[in-house]
Amino acid sequence: MNQLEIGRIGKAHGLRGEVTAVISSDRPERTAPGAVWILDSGSYTVRSIRPFQTKWIAALDGVDDRGAAEALTGSVILGDPIDDDDALWAHELLGATVVTPDGTEWGTVAAIYPNPASDLIELSDGTLIPTVFVTDQSGLPDRVVVDPPEGLLQGEPEEA
After folding, report:
1. How many CB atoms lie within 10 A of CB 54?
2. Can you give the pLDDT at residue 77?
3. pLDDT of 30-77, one tens digit each?
4. 96 backbone dihedrals φ, ψ, rounded to 5°
5. Which of 73, 109, 142, 148 could be bridged to 133 by S-S, CB 3.0 to 4.6 A?
6. Degrees (nearest 5) of the Cα angle 45, 85, 1?
7. Are 93 and 144 in contact (CB under 8 A)?
8. Helices in 45-120 by DSSP H: which ranges?
9. Comparing C-alpha atoms, which of 32, 155, 41 is closest to residue 104?
């Protein structure tokens, strides 16, 4: 199973092995006691966690002193994908053919870019489409339907 990047470990905090972390996921499961964070050095279960300024302070099982916490500084935090049928997961869109409701193909999803208002889908030709215009993802991983306002999709559709 492919893990997803959900954050990064910052500096050690205090003497008892706590670390600061910046979490990029908005899923509360990622910042709850019992969550499993996967780092290069292994998997760690979150023992306790609390918000701190714009970050989190976490105590991880097996990290019991400042030295162990300092060894994790800068580590990327990965997590297993969350099974939620109602959610649109950006990584599932990669490679999918983008079609409009009339069946016209506009290309394939080349990349996903985070954006404060709505993540952006980049098509293989460089066209950007906000994910709010995704109306049907039941065809994933092969196809996704978008219904953008007139004028957003420019140029010619791809040949089928």
Report:
1. 7
2. 95
3. 999 999 999 999 999 999 999 999 999 999 999 999 999 999 999 999
4. -70, 145
5. 148
6. 45
7. yes
8. 66-70, 90-93
9. 155
Q: How far apart are CA 17 and CA 19, in angstroms?
A: 7
122 vs 125: CA distance, rounded Å: 8
* Tokens 């460089």, located at residue: 126
Candidates 43, 160, 42; CA nearest to 99 is 160
Q: How far is CA 160 from CA 97, 103, 106, in A?
A: 11, 10, 9
Is residue 160 pLDDT above 60, yes or no?
no
List, as one string, the DSSP characters of 11-55: EEETTTTEEEEEE----GGGGSTT-EEEETTEEEEEEEEEEETTE
> Tokens 């997961």 correspond to what residue?
89
Q: How far apart are CA 80 and CA 123, in angstroms?
A: 26
Return d(Cα 106, Cα 99) in angstroms, integer: 6
